[in-house]
Amino acid sequence: MIGAKDFGIDLGTDYIRMYIPGSNIVTEPDLVVYHRGTDQIAAIGQKAERLLKSDAERYVQYELKDRGEIHDYSTTKDTLSLLIRENQRFSFLLHPDLLMAIPHGSSVIERKAIRDLCVQSGFNEKGLYFIDELLASAIGAGLNVTDAVGCMIINIGAGNTQAGVFSLGGLVSSGSLHIGGRDLDRLIVDHVRKNYGIMIDISAAEKAKMQIGSVLPHDMGEVDQMSVEGRNVRTGLPDSVVITTAEMREAIEPAVADMLDCIGGVLEDTPPEIAADLLESGITACGGGIKMKGLKELLQERTGLTIHEADRAQEAVIRGVQKVMQDPSAWTGIYSELLQ
Ligand SMILES: Nc1ncnc2c1ncn2[C@@H]1O[C@H](COP(=O)(O)OP(=O)(O)OP(=O)(O)O)[C@@H](O)[C@H]1O
Ligand SMILES: [Mg+2]
Prior knowledge:
The protein has 2 domains: about 5-135 and about 315-330, ATPase, nucleotide binding domain (Nucleotidyltransferase, domain 5), CATH 3.30.420.40; about 145-310, ATPase, nucleotide binding domain (Nucleotidyltransferase, domain 5, 2-Layer Sandwich). The protein is about 40% helix and about 25% strand. It is built from 11 helices and 18 strands. It has helices at about 45-55, 75-85, 110-120, 135-140, 180-195, 200-210, 245-270, 270-280, 295-305, 315-325, 330; strands at about 5-10, 15-20, 25-30, 30-35, 40-45, 60, 65, 70, 100, 130, 150-155, 160-165, 170-175, 200, 225-230, 240-245, 285, 305-310. The strands form 5 sheets. The chain has a 5-stranded mixed sheet, with helices on both faces. A 5-stranded mixed sheet has the order 13-12-11-17-18, with helices on both faces. A 3-stranded antiparallel sheet has the order 5-4-6, with helices on both faces. A hairpin with a 2-residue loop joins strand 12 (about 160-165) and strand 13. The chain starts with 6 loop residues before the first strand and ends in a 9-residue tail after the last helix. The mean pLDDT is about 90. The structure holds adenosine-5'-triphosphate (ATP) and magnesium ion. Magnesium ion binds near residues 12, 157, 287 and 317. Adenosine-5'-triphosphate binds near residues 12, 159, 287 and 288.
């Protein structure tokens, strides 16, 4: 029986999402600040953003994840400890239980390291459960994973692309890679630096991607363009440049191609009788990355399958965690290979 009744978490590259029974899903930016010159954590998420805005000199900022993986275990440990402390509901609970979503494809060693850090953060060692993000997102997106009829989920986040086909409660085929929306932003930053000698922030690149970006080749002729501001790498002075949809599409193409290859590979690995089910049900897509303009159309074109964007696509994983926590007996046993 999955006994985690206290705390559910999806530690994403862009956002930390939490579910605590009795309250709503909470989403916080993946940002942590420490008091400068100390090892004292000051705040996470929006509160950390406010502290940085009010007095940037006093704080040092960190992100927990890079390219879809935890890259700083000690900061993550401090963050989880702070989350336990900040939740009044746990003031009487020394060591709360935890159900944590783990990216598909994490190695046994990574899982062991995450388990250790959760215990060191103060979670109950005996009440610690992991759920594969693919399974959580499929459940959260409302797919009937126990059905004999196959269904497919893809999750394109900021740091990961994950894809899987389920049938009879098991994974028939799956794949993942550490490439997501943040990599598109990085490629835009590189493009502007190489071609115009201007260094722009990754947040400026993300804004341009969302405002005028498109992955569809036939949008190449579009005249969409916008001005992005940064710093001239030669003069060191503020500078700006106008970039277009077409050049951005070209810049992000390598990462988009990798995402498409990952999803195509999963389809190739799917036995024909289950692949045939997908002709009817199509592919359900979640994660913020699927909102990239033209991506659903491009995927549809490449796979020949209908792409449905899940309702509240960025919350699919944590909503799956919530469903499992609310009715643990419905999921125990069937998914033992994906729950540990
Ligand atoms: N309208 C949009 N157009 C393009 N990209 C978008 C849009 N909205 C969100 N995104 C991208 O979605 C990504 C965030 O998605 P999500 O919240 O699913 O990531 P995450 O769960 O934090 O990361 P991961 O699961 O990969 O660790 C960002 O890269 C963001 O730029
Ligand atoms: Mg995610």
